[in-house]
Amino acid sequence: xxxxxxxxxxxxxxxxxLLGGKGSNLAEMTRLGLPVPPGFTLTTEACRxxxxxxxxxxxxxxxxxxxxxxxxxxxGRLLGQPDNPLLLSVRSGARFSMPGxxxxxxxxxxxxxxxxxxxxxxxxxxxxxxxxxxxxxxLGTTVMGVxxxxxxxxxxxxxxxxxxxxDVHLDAEDxxxxxxxxxxxxxxxxxxxxxxxxxxxxxxxxxxxFASWNGERARLYRRREHIADDLGTAVNVQxxxxxxxxxxxxxxxxxxxxxxxxxxxxxxxxLPNAQGEDVVAGIRNTVPLxxxxxxxxxxxxxxxxxxxxxxxxxxxxxxxEFTIERGTLWMLQxxxxxxxxxxxxxxGADLADEGLITADEGLARVSGEGxxxxxxxxxxxxxxxxxxxxxxxxxPGAAVGAAVFDSAEAVRRAADGERVVLVRQETTPDDLPxxxxxQAVLTSRGGKTSHAAVVARGMGKVCVCGADELTVDxxxxxxxxxxxxxxxxxxxxxxxxxxxTVYAGAVPLVDSAVMRYLEAGAGGRATTGVVDAVAxxxxxxDAVRRLEVRANADTPQDAVRARRxxxxxxxxxxxxxxxxxxxxxxxxxxxxAGTDAxxxxxxxxxxxxxxxxxxxxxxxxxxxxxxxxxxxxxLHEFLPDRADLAVRIATAxxxxxxxxxxxxxxxxxxxxxxxxxxxxxxxxVRLGLxxxxxxxxxxxxxxxxxxxxxxxxxxxRAEIMVPLVGDVRELRLVREEVERVLAEVSDTSxxxxxxxxxxxxxxxxxxxxxxxxxxxxxxxxxxxxxxxQTTWGFSRDDVEAxxxxxxxxxxxxxxxxxxxxxxxxxxxxxxxxxxxxxATRPDLTxxxxxxxxxxxxxxxxxxxAGLDYVSCSPFRVPVARLEAxxxxx
Length: 889
Ligand code: PEP
Ligand code: MG
Hints:
By secondary structure, the protein is of the alpha/beta class. It is 46% helix and 17% strand.
């Protein structure tokens, strides 16, 4: 029979799939002999079974009862025992951390009798009633579905009646009264009494936590973090320990190193006389962990030792939650901690230096996405102006946006394209949509481990928290700075999550240190820890990767920059980009020419311009391959607008004037060439085959540029790439022309010029007939933009705006297929083309030059599909190098 419950003494960290992250790590700490309050875990399998069937799997509660008995025997107390109750916490814990997104219920086991027992054994009546109040409230909302605001209202009314500012001023008698009020609220709202049976409390709490897996905010968080919906959560049932028993108690969160910068040294927040929930909620401002050293040196020393044990054991930065109950330290959670991109790089290098991990492990723990984040600009500190407020630098980066004071407003404005900064006293999981929509999150309360900080860091979103000089009035939608400045909703703020500062207005941005280093190319010097760590990760990636990385570049300037970023050639030079501006007229003439002579004139005028372009690029990429793609403009991009022309002519006629003769001719020609669906029309190789002299002009320009570079002592390595081929015969016709023209150039220049000829694979038919196409192609390059468009039948120009958000929301795909390669469909075509192309021509060079060439996940796919290179925009080149290295590990 399936087993659904494991004691903490039975599991381990390798069981995270079954026991969830929290449960498996609690078991691991228990095995390591660290002080963990005893407990057990209900598996994710149990959760899936409950959610799938709507009922509990047979035997589940018998198993729970057995583990509960063990727990009771071990602690010498019974759950809810009237004179000395064992109390339990019930917490969610999924495979992947989802901070604050699911339910937690504390103090299970308190009822009208045992609350007195707790008061007696703790010697603290107020504490007992406060715990009972919390239980009634938590069960009331999460299990019995009562609107939380009803409890809040009752609490506010009581405080007003007693004339006290906050809950700490309520005494035991007040809280006992509040419990009665809460119980009445539950009865009124649900018709049910608050359950007095501790076992029933436990059972219903467990089911509520399972159900919270499908809660709205949990689902939203999973979509955002790409966590699968069918994993389910485990539930941890654990003996309660109390950090709120007086000044010798407290709760805290700690990291073995700084999660923002990766710097060595214990790091964290502590809240004396408080439960763990109070720390994470950021409701009261915490003190730095160093303060604990003063308050309780013994507990601090033990904490340090345990954390060292954990970091050495996990060989990584760990974060923990702990509670001190009357001087006794308890470890309540650990996990490999979330970190910023900067910290990930620094840790990778430092832990390798310390011999805890290998260089390859260090590389595996950083990401291209993180590197891209470090390449983003920072605020220009020379011109920041006056600081409006300071807070805790919780998640780095620079962001500018209009201040908004609630989640809904953030979402509304962001949907209109506005950049916003979400300003709150503190955030709760309900603020998640607003946090996603905002550029930055700013709170006036809470430390580096508050909800805002943890969630923002996980998302890579800029965050400053605990800016307690700011008085945030969410009701009035404004906040006030210490100097009296009032920030109304809509006021532009600049938030520096690296320094923890906030400025009024939009502060200008400058390049980051990492960017400056990368842009300096071979001459760059690593001056700071993070730059050095990035340099080392890239060096390791370059040493292990099999994929080469080229750049998509159309100008000598881009080529120079790409080379500094480490590009090993140009994988795509889009020649149509060379025909913009003034040259557009010539292209228009060439396409629309009524006579051969007119067309030849236009081509002759384009030839020297095109030769110059090629010479510059070949010079910038001397010694490296440069793939020149023949012209591939969707026709409408180069032709004058039909409606404009018609209006011009009609206006002239309406004025009684003779319309411009050229306009009339153009209109007729544009009418002839008009296409309803230009992306599927006369573009790519089709244009080259239809417009006489076009291919010849481009090839001649390139051949002459190569001859010039050779004569100048250079090492040009031009390749000619034919776009949008669907059949080998198209390619063959172009190849014949290329060979003819290059032979002529060789003759005229006296320098033998040859260039490999290859094709793009960007139509399903090309992929499916790749074996035949390879007879005439020396290389393939996947145009995954068009291949995605034509495989899915999605217009690449329209759909993303039109209906992708609905598709993303409804889970048709987790991410746009134009961003991350669709492995199942487009990827399958890639696989077929690679296999059949190489079967025909074993030494076929194969690359990719669609946008996917710079997307981390897609790079991993191209590695495993056996490609030789990826080509992407110059700024993505370092990202692709890093990911190609990681793919090879
Ligand atoms: C492609 O289709 O993937 C490609 C690189 O070509 P373009 O984007 O220029 O159509
Ligand atoms: Mg294309």
